[in-house]
């Protein structure tokens, strides 16, 4: 079993998970509440045969670089890649809040990035969270002080199908009755393992800090400097991130295309749409 490792940089240690593969590697930046080893979609790329280098972003896992923003963390990502011998990658992938970092790496081209993929990402130039209640409660509920207790309760809840359904329901704009039965036992086990592996540490509050309206200009600048072909995927059923962010990414990034998925929840890689997604990624990265 592959385990995370620590890589020393000029700014502190960075935790990464390096998954070997026969095809060229991808850099993977997980979303909120996720460390390098949290599978919030990197298994898609491993299944296609790509090597994967997944990062614990600032505030998550054992990464110890302080409260760096995505632009400030980008040079340290470059140092990690240089130490591991990666001068170019097949793609840089961002999921949800991880899109902030993926955009910065693609814009800097350190390492050389052939493709950028953004899955259900936010914030774009638009601020995030999308709803005021989330903006107010998120920093409190998932604060470093309370997050341990919150995730302990969530891990207990998802032991049952009823609890898992309750945790997944807010991640969809559809009534749970319209999609829950389509989730196979394997899908439910995957979602359950995801919730059990998640923690907020101090990373989620750091993520929320970077989604402010005042920083929209900086996000616009980074998105405008991305020169590689970019794939944006999103679902209108996503209850975690508004589809407007995907439309904004596709509008601002110069060579970007948007593919609308029918994923019923924010967990885009879990469910019957996975096979379509694998085909889409294989074509885009291998093109």
Task: Walk me through the structure.
The chain is an alpha/beta fold and 287 residues long. It contains 11 helices and 10 strands. The strands form 2 sheets. An 8-stranded mixed sheet has the order 1-2-4-3-6-8-9-10, with helices on both faces. Strands 5-7 form a two-stranded parallel ribbon. β9 (230-235), α10 (243-252) and β10 form a beta-alpha-beta unit. The mean pLDDT is 96.
Give me some keywords for this one.
287 residues, alpha/beta, two-stranded parallel sheet, 10 strands
Q: Give the total of beta strands.
A: 10
Strand portion: 15-25%
Molecular shape: globular
N-to-C SSE string, H for helix and E for strand: EEEHEHEEHEEHHHHHHEHEH
In angstroms, what separates the terminal alpha carbons?
A: 31 Å
Main beta sheet strand tally, sense and closure: 8 strands, mixed
Query: Would you tell me the overall average pLDDT?
Result: 96
Helix percent reads 25-40%
What's the tally of helices?
11
Radius of gyration, Cα only, in angstroms?
17 Å
Q: SS-based structural class?
A: alpha/beta
**Biggest sheet strand line-up:** 1-2-4-3-6-8-9-10
User: What is the assembly state of the chains in this entry?
Assistant: single chain
Low-confidence stretches: none
